[in-house]
Design a protein that fits this description.
about 190 residues; about 30% helix; 8 helices; 3-stranded antiparallel β-sheet; 11 strands; alpha+beta; 2 domains
Length: about 190
């Protein structure tokens, strides 16, 4: 299966400077082995990473029947993404990382009532929390909204609706994604 839209193949601009990411201890680390926050890969992303050499057993199929969640690995007293190098804080698949990772510190999730899909900024990300109100970050929010609300990306997310997480109170909602809400099968059955 091929994606034909350039939006679906584009990598989102990462507003967080690399030196900040490399010195942070939030991303790619999880408290439990079966964390619901572990990255979700679309069907196309899973095949791309497998073609890159990833072990096929690392991917757990999700309830949408298309996407897969990465199996975390134990590291010290927590768990990490198997593509994360804790010594350097680098991602070994960064150029082909999934949309779920490209979006961070943004999160796709259901609102608290579970009846709408929203976009939020994870306040556990020190950069996101510190820069949320700046003009540059507000422009970036608009770009992310435009990207997610594009027809192709909305269709990609709706088809792989496990990308939409449960409500998290550490995520500050910045936008209700009406088109994605309307396209998400679990909300329209």
């Amino acid at each position: 299966m091929r994606e034909t839209s350039s939006a679906a193949n584009a990598t989102l601009y990462q507003i967080i400077p690399s030196e900040i990411c490399f010195s942070c201890d939030v991303c790619c680390r999880f408290l439990e082995a079966d964390s619901p926050l572990a990255p979700i890969f679309t069907e196309v992303e899973t095949e791309r990473v497998k073609a890159y050499g990833a072990d096929p057993t690392l991917f757990r199929p999700q309830t949408d029947g298309k996407s897969a969640q990465i199996q975390l690995k134990s590291h010290k007293d927590f768990y990490i993404c198997p593509f994360f190098e804790p010594e350097t804080s680098h991602c070994t698949i960064y150029p082909i990382r999934p949309l779920d990772c490209q979006l961070y510190p943004f999160a796709l999730m259901f609102n608290e009532d579970g009846n709408e899909v929203v976009l939020g900024v994870d306040t556990l990300c020190p950069f996101g929390e510190a820069h949320l109100e700046t003009e540059a970050f507000q422009r970036h929010i608009r770009q992310v909204i435009d990207y997610v609300e594009s027809e192709t990306v909305t269709a990609q997310i709706a088809a792989n609706w496990s990308l939409i997480g449960d409500y998290q109170d550490t995520v500050k909602i910045v936008h209700t994604l009406v088109q994605l809400t309307d396209a998400t099968p679990t909300l329209n059955t």
